[in-house]
Every structure is written in C-alpha cells, then in structure tokens.
Amino acid sequence: MENGQCWLGKPYYSLDAYCKNTYGEKLYKIALNAGLTCPNRDGTIDSRGCIFCNAGGSGDFAIDMKSVPSVSAQLKEGQKLFYKKQIGSRFIAYFQAYTNTYGPIFYLRQIYEEALGEDTVSGISIATRPDCINEDVLTALVNLKEKFPDKFVWIELGLQTIHEQTARFIRRGYELSCFDTAVRLLQSIQIPIIVHVILGLPGEAKADMLETIDYLNQSKIWGVKLQLLHILKDTDLASLYWEGKIPALSKEAYLDILIRCLEHLSPEIVIHRLTGDGAKEQLLAPLWSLDKRDVLNSLHREMKVRQTFQGRLYES
C-alpha cells in the first residue's frame, strides 16, 4: 500500500498521521464552549434542534462555560488535563458546542483571535452549519489567516447525509444545495473543510451512506468525521428508540458499514473521527461504543483480515 508510510501504519489517513507529517508532532484537541446557540434551536429555523442533538448542542466534552467563561481560560483548563498525563505541548482549539459561526461578528472575531493568540495553540477548528456561512464570516476568516499566517483555520460542517428525505426526518433544517454553496465559498478562500457524517441514520441503507461518501469525494473536501449514530437521553431520537421505532447498530454492523465507507473514500481525505464519543451519563445506545479503544482495535483487526484500506474502491 503506497500510503502505508505516511499513514503511520494505519489502514486509513488519520488526523494523527496528518499532524505528525505536517507539524512534526501530535496535536491535542481542546473542546470549547463559546456560549453560542443554533438557528435550529433559537426559533430561526426551529426550536427543537436536530432529533439526535441534546441540550449540550453536541458539546458534551467542551469545557463548562458557566464555571470557565473565557476562551483563554477554557484552553488553560483543557491543557491542564493533558499536562497531568504528561502529554501534549501543542493544541487545536476546537469550537465545538452549538453553531460557532452563528453570533455577532465582533464576538466571533474576538473568540477566534483569543484562541489563536495562545502560544500553545497551532490552530482552530470551528464547528458550524452550512447555512451559517455568510460574507461577514468569510471576511473574518480571511482576516484571521492574514493576522495569524503561521496558524491554521479549519471549518467543520454538519452535513450528516446527502439524502433530503433523511435530512427532513432528522430536522437538519437546510437543503443540500446550501451545503454545496458553503463548500464553494470556503474553498474560494482556501479554508480546509471537515464534514460530519452520521452512519446508521434511520431509514438509510448501506447504499445510501456510500452515496454520501461518493458525494464528498466529488466535493473535494479536506477532512471527514464519520460518526456512529448515538442515541442520547432527552432527545427526540431517544423517544423513538424507547418506542421501538429506531434500532441501535451492533458493533459488527457498524464496523462493516464503516469499512465499506472507508474503502470508497478518497485516500487524500483526512479522517478526523471514526466512531465518536458519547458521554457515559447521556448515552442510551449503543453502549458498546463507550469502549472507544476496543472499537478502533476491532476496526484495525477487521481491516487487516479483509486486507483492505481507505480508498481501495475509490474511483476518481
């Protein structure tokens, strides 16, 4: 496998490999909560959010903003966790909770610059929605690149699926054309794009998920997060689960889907996530996903048995 060396022995192009190849070391991610909201929650589009999203706005592992209000203070708290483990000297400031380009532009510029101004931060990753990429945000991103030329700025877009029927069911709140426009605008200013995809969404077969992967290949995105569908407490998805309308994937079924997706994914796309994290106190199912190390080890073993790797079935 020609990519084996730069992939550091893994059968896919991991973020860890990218960082070590590009920056000479592993970069550790610190999840932040900037106190923002989401148009799918504040009534602009809806007030309920997506059916899988809980009150934490997908930021269950972000530093608690109530006790640590500023971005710089949150970064210092996050760094302490790594220093205690005697690991980590360079970090990615990850604006995770809710929609992190949805707010007053002066405040957005302030929090981005506050994070990039930290000496130990190599760059920022901003989780958001395609319908929250506008001209003001694009201008702010361009200015950030000019002001911090030695640091990176990544944008993470929550797509989940390309299929409109599924998107309506999960209450995503925007059409695929909106995603296409956001990708085009971000690529026009050379911002690397990471796309979130959920595997195992209700009603989707393996073929549907592979169509999403093929679409991302054509979109020429930089990175992807492949997320197992987590059923969390206090979500509409949890209600459907208790009613027996939504099954939880078995580990074997998920690994099979995940491997097929990796086989079809371009070998140039960086893998930022392969399973996802569900907070133990919030997760209803599938509980096997709590042992992330076991999931990844099982994935590596199965890919070795199948003698397969990212991009094996990719057609450019």
Can you offer a commentary on this structure?
37% of the residues lie in helices and 16% in strands. Helix 3 (105-116) runs parallel beside helix 4 (135-147) and helix 7 (206-219) runs parallel beside helix 9 (251-264). It contains ten helices and nine strands. It has 316 residues and is of the alpha/beta class. Helix 3 (105-116) links the parallel strand 2 (91-95) and strand 3 (121-128). The strands form two sheets. A seven-stranded parallel β-sheet has the order 1-2-3-4-5-6-8. The two termini are 17 Å apart.
Number of strands: 9
* Rounded Rg: 19 Å
The SS-based structural class is: alpha/beta
Taking the sheet with the most strands, its summary is: 7 strands, parallel
Instruction: Count helical runs.
Output: 10
Beta-strand percentage? 15-25%
**Which ranges are low-confidence, i.e. pLDDT below 50, for 5 or more consecutive residues?**
none
Question: Strand-and-helix sequence, N→C?
Answer: HEHEHEHEHHEHEEHHEEH
Task: Briefly summarize what is shown.
This protein has helices at residues 15-23, 71-84, 105-116, 135-147, 164-169, 176-188, 206-219, 236-242, 251-264, 292-306; strands at residues 28-32, 91-95, 121-128, 152-160, 193-199, 223-228, 231-232, 270-273, 283-285.
Strand and helix layout:
Elements (H helix, E strand, L loop, with lengths): L14 H9 L4 E5 L38 H14 L6 E5 L9 H12 L4 E8 L6 H13 L4 E9 L3 H6 L6 H13 L4 E7 L6 H14 L3 E6 L2 E2 L3 H7 L8 H14 L5 E4 L9 E3 L6 H15 L10
Parallel strand pairs: 1-2, 2-3, 3-4, 4-5, 5-6, 6-8
Antiparallel strand pairs: 7-9
Helix pairs in contact: 3-4, 7-9
